[in-house]
Fold these 2 entries.
Entry 1:
Amino acid sequence: VTPELGEGILIVALALALYGSVAAGTGARTGRSTLIESAQHAAVGVFVLMTAAIVLLAYAFLTFDFSVRYVASNTTLATPFWYRITAVWGALEGSIILWAWMLSLYTLLVILRHRENARDLYPWAMSAMLGVIAFFALVMTVSAPPFQRLSPVPLDGRGLNPLLQDTGMITHPIALYLGFTGFTVPFAFAMGALATGRVGDAWITTTRRWTIVAWYFLSLGLLIGGWWSYHVLGWGGYWAWDPVENAAFMPWLTGTALLHSVMIQERRRMLKLWNLTLVILTFLLTLFGTFLTRSGVIASVHAFTQGTIGAFFLGFLSLVALTALTLLAVRWDVLRSEGTLDSVISRESVFLLNNVMLVAAAFTVFFGTVFPLLSEAVRGVKVSVGAPFFNQVNIPLFLSLIFLMGVGPLIAWRRASVDNLRRNFLWPVTLGVVMALVCFVLGVRSSFAVLSLALTLFVASTVALDFFRATRARLRMGETLFPAMGGLLLRHNRRYGGFLVHLGILVITVGVMGSHAWSVQTETTLKRGESAHLGGYQFRFDGLSGRQEANFFRVSGTFTVSNGKPNLLVMTPAKKFYPQDQAPIAYVDYRLGLKEDLYMVLGDFARDGSQATIKVQVNRLVSWIWIGGLVVTLGTVLAVLPDRKAPR
Amino acid sequence: MNRKPKLMIGGGVIAAALAYMIYAGVTQSVVYFITPSELQAAPVTGKAYRLGGMVVKGSLQWQPRTLDLAFALSDGKASIPVRHHGTPPDLFGEERGAVVEGMWTSDGYFKATQILAKHSEEYKAPHDGDVSKKDLMKTLKGGGQ
């Protein structure tokens, strides 16, 4: 009965979400609080139903209920426990259900947190969020039903894609979707602001933490995705400008722009229209990302017509865009800025430039991603736009953004005086220039490497200088060192949280630069006892062995690695043979290090074990990317801590 | 207030620079997807293409010691000899679809710099071990993405 029960739950959830959305909207317009309360109950009901639906699907996976088509397609009797859990969101239908569940969770949290403190905006926000949930429930009942019955019931399922059987795939979709769905909250409040005409600061201050949280989870999702790509796919990279990656990167870029531009509105009453546009754009891009990855258009424009899901998403995208544009048009006269830009050399203008660059990067990624689709649809010519395009256009943009990252937080509002500039930037600029010279003298000739290192040091020293001065001021007030620093971080948690996130981004930049500029690799075939040499290491092939594992057969090569000292370590890259799959899957062996990673992939081998073809990489500084992710996490936590303003 | 025009000019300069960067980037790095019969009809040397087809049965030659890989890609009408230096990827094999990126050389073969075997989230394992030819051609038309 699982299929029928599941479908029933989803239909009721759809009806309830629709009712709640209409009731909240009507209640907000007419001011009838009973309707708003009723909508709240509906939202709680939707959350309970969505939870029931996702638990039911998980139950079907755990009990191998192959009468559910989705379960049969994404698991086998041999799939280990954890991967049966992750299989719940391993493919299209399940990812939609996960999305809808998270959205219902966010809605519940918004109600709990804001029904008292944002009385005007929150009924509208609730209406918008329930509306979005209703759309996803509609997709699940019509276009991508997770509980579709399969008959006759097969004896065994077809199995989860072996590449997805990795711990990264447990967390990556969750983080990514928490990010995607999280941007619905600021979007919903922005809609509320437009509906009520209260387009001032209220929606921004209400959603500040929500935006940071969504941004953080999206960043985390991107990083975990990179980590998965790095240690599973075996090509030695973490980012390929693949359309699936780009789909998640575009809202990240506009979301980052939003985090910065709202500060100008809070401080200077400018950019009201721009902020609303950015939040709408970011939300649209999360939907567009799902459309891109789930409708099959990436493979071919013609795949679009194979399912209805593409049409659903495109229709909803247009509906949201039209509604938002109409609301913007209606409120046009209250969206004018109250403040003006006084000088080009000011914090406002640096933030503005930061926004232009981020949106430009988003546009570049968008263009490169959809150009092949457009070309195929319009001219009937299939083309591909590869990594060189994205790198060529984005690297200058990102380097400029890093420069602005150093300038923005310290330059004065309104109009920066020469004194302000000298005080804040003389030493950092000097250090950056010295860094560039040192790099050059040491023989670094990659302009990308020189520039990134110089800019990184420049930005890091602006942060250090600021923190040093603030601490010194507190010490002069008679505080001791650690309480002074701690107090500073907690009192100005938003500022220093932001700085910490910036430092994390710098650490990631160093990692990206190092792996880009200094990684080396080789590919070779070794007979037993022969060695490959790379980056000062020696990799000796000692033999092959085979072993039956839970749901696959593993053939691993044994390689003794040394660097001067003999027998430093043994690495065992392997190939995994899944019975339901024709081709084996490479199992990468790697050793992470702060300076460099050793990375081995077994390519091909002689069946008698006498010979193996391997790819060996020494990847430089890649670990800095993951460490940077940790720093970003710390910074985010600091930034969302409750405000501790001094009592006045 | 003559700041507005200044800002407009600044914005215009940035927009123009960006437009140029995107235009130059796309025209330099766009790679056309062609089929073996299209390449045979108009063999242009020295221009990067993505060539998609099925690896012809019996054409695959792999020399592990030298890492030389040779095979023929066919779309049913024409067959193009391809050479590559490097290990064949996991999903690569005879009578399977493959997309290679590279150039046609004047020596009469397609020199591949890259064999694309992308991961797909939507995993479709064959039911009983064999993929039909029709399915394969469908994947090929997808351009290997």
Entry 2:
Amino acid sequence: VTADTPLATVDLDRCVGSGDCAMALPQAFALDDGDGLARVLDGAAAVDPKLLRRAAANCPSGAISVEEEAS
Amino acid sequence: VEDPRGMYEEDALIFTRFADVQAALFNRDLSRSLDKRTFEEGNVRERNLSVLHGTEHRDRRRIENRLFQSARLAMYERELFPQIVVDTMDRVVEDGRADLFRLGYLLSVVLSARTAGVDRDPDSVDQLETLIKHVDVFSEASAIEDTIGDKEAVRRRVTDDLAEFDRAFVRPSRERRERLLARPEGQLDEATGEQADHVPDDVLTRLLQNKHNQALRLDDGLIVREVASYLQAGTHTSATTMINTLDLIFQWRARHPEEWAALSPNRLFIQRCVHEALRVRPTNPGIRRLAEVDTKVGDTEIPAGSRLILSTWFANRDESAYGPDADGFDPLRSVPEGIARWGTSFGAGMHACIGRTLSVGTPVPESLDEAPPDSHLYGLVTLMVEGLLGRGVEPDPERPAVPDDRTKRWTRWRSYPVRVSAKVTL
């Protein structure tokens, strides 16, 4: 199960809802009101991929992946 | 001062480089499932979130993470905590003297109790004093692997203390929540007059709401220990960080009086001091891990069953991350993009401290002169430090501070007498 844009993906099976991604990049990630887990927002497409990769590296559960190139 | 109490002497692989410690913290093959006899069974940490691994950890963390989301943290920081700081300081400062250890505990325990779900009489300082005695016992037991002296005595003490904590605090708090949860939405509770839909949202309530899920194994004993752990962790680490920050500020401002005069009114600078103090003095100088399977950390092969100590103390002093003067306290230091100013002190990965943002806020922008974004949080420790500085806090020249000699974790305090003067202005 995933929620993603072409560039960033959140693995909902791994996400624990820490909210670190949403706090660091509120334009790219948000926590869902229902299950409390992270979702990628449309705005992620306009975010510097370097910042997305940093959010992925800092994700405590390793739930975020970022493609090398936008497709 | 580097490993003055033999913390790194046990039979374990010691990692000291920043990159290795970071890699190990994110390695999912390394668990915190340490020695079950001393560390878990009967101890406050038994089956606690902090020692779980794999899916059980994920599922518990999902429940509890929801209590630490940004809107709630902003409410704590902006609406609730400033008044707690003022009220508590007014109550416990006597004749211009106070002890930072007691004061830090009293300030932190009010909010920790609220987060954990421990009901208390808001007018009773005696009850807060009782809670901080519990926190002290739970803190010693939580770090039992680093206890200096009789570990069995620590185990006996925490067993007795958990029973008393349950009787005096958890059971009444639980009964109230269960009564409220059982009422149809909107109906008033006869005993308290509260509306049923106003159940306090805290760790205790969340655990009670999920108790029916057998897979989570939320039995009565676990609920007491989990609430105790949140009370302990939220109180002890914030208080310790507050003391270390002030201790380092006292030294820095004596050497840099002009910079201090110019920068100290800026709350962002005080927050920088908190982050730098955490880097220089991590509350746990050595994080332990156990290899569940054969794995690797950096270039090092780790056989299954190996014990590791990740030295936050040395990693936070790694010159490749923090520069040639990494050993010293310098709130004005430059840090490379992407590296946390607080170092590895909060851990990282799946066991990263759940209360980090509540405690020390969000990262400080590089420029201290620009207003931070609306979403910026300063953290409760910053407000505590600022509150004390606003009251003219100084070390008490007649009474020296006393390090906590009960533990190998040498960055902790038992007593830190100070003098304070002016009223708090927040």
